[in-house]
Amino acid sequence: MNQTTGPDRATGRRTGRGFGRVLVTVYGVLAFAAIGRSSYELVVKFHEAPVAYSLSTLAAVVYVVATFALAIGTPVWRTVAWVTVGIEAVGVVTVGALSLADPGVFGESTVWSGFGQGYGYVPLVLPFVGLWWLWRTKHSTSARTSEERTA
């Protein structure tokens, strides 16, 4: 196969391939954990700390959408991934800082409290790895899209 039609050039560098598979797996595990936690909190304990439990639900939704967006990796889903992973980064930094400044600010802990301390700080590291991966794979996806338009 020549350089322009080889398997790597034809498929391009998608977000859900290579290292992206590991990233999608970690997002999936975190999404599953956050859904479990927020579902329980919403059903059983919502009246105790509605803000905290709503934030946990938001985190769960963000993780689910980011997981699918990173796994699919088409241009539209890449945009969705940029937005959701960006929201995640802002959320974990904001909620983490507020919860450290005043531990009782939300009434109870959330997925993002203490910068994700209850989840081994994975919620703090993950969005920045996700943003790096999206940035890292953007050029090859753009090149692939240009090649598809000229074909």
UniProtKB/TrEMBL annotation:
Keywords for this protein: Membrane, Transmembrane, Transmembrane helix
Superkingdom: Bacteria
Transmembrane intervals: 21-40, 52-72, 79-98, 118-135
Protein name: Integral membrane protein
Biological source species: Promicromonospora thailandica
